[in-house]
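Severity: low
Component: inverse-folding endpoint
Summary: output formatting inconsistent between runs
Steps to reproduce: submit the following structure tokens with default settings.
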């Protein structure tokens, strides 16, 4: 009788351990892919272990990750099927709504020659980029540039040009 009780107790401990492991994996999925579509397996494992706080060992965790059909691993990089579907949906929406929006530029808005509080002026390329964004009719617009190119100053100018239209901007 005692061995059956002990066996039941061990099963309960294993069940709790198993549950904690999957909770930790799901938590890591939720937090690790908030801003990134692909992360390293090492970073994901670190997050799972941090969340689990000693409730399971490394090999158990790795086996559970390997067995999860929603986790996709190639080399030391990984993503999830959910992330891929989310990205496909966003790309589809971007392509479908391309050119369907009014210009972002507030009526009559003129670009300032220089950023507020600065003693330098925008160059031709920066003015072209600012005009390009403000006159754009796409759902999504992207600005790229090397460090120090003036992206932050340009975004402030763009935001000023959009404010009167009550359009939001994510940076």
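Observed output (run 2 of 3):
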């Amino acid at each position: 009788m005692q061995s059956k009780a002990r066996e039941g107790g061990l099963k309960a401990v294993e069940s709790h351990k198993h549950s904690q492991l999957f909770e930790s994996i799901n938590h890591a999925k939720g937090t690790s892919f908030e801003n990134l579509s692909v992360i390293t397996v090492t970073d994901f494992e670190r997050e799972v272990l941090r969340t689990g706080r000693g409730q399971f060992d490394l090999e158990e965790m790795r086996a559970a990750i390997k067995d999860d059909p929603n986790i996709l691993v190639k080399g030391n990089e990984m993503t999830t099927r959910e992330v891929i579907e989310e990205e496909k949906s966003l790309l589809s929406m971007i392509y479908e709504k391309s050119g369907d929006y009014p210009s972002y530029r507030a009526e009559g808005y003129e670009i300032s020659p220089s950023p507020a509080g600065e003693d330098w002026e925008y160059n031709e390329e920066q003015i072209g980029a600012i005009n390009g964004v403000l006159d754009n009719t796409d759902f999504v617009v992207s600005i790229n540039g090397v460090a120090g190119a003036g992206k932050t100053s340009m975004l402030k100018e763009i935001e000023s040009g959009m404010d009167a239209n009550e359009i939001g901007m994510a940076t």
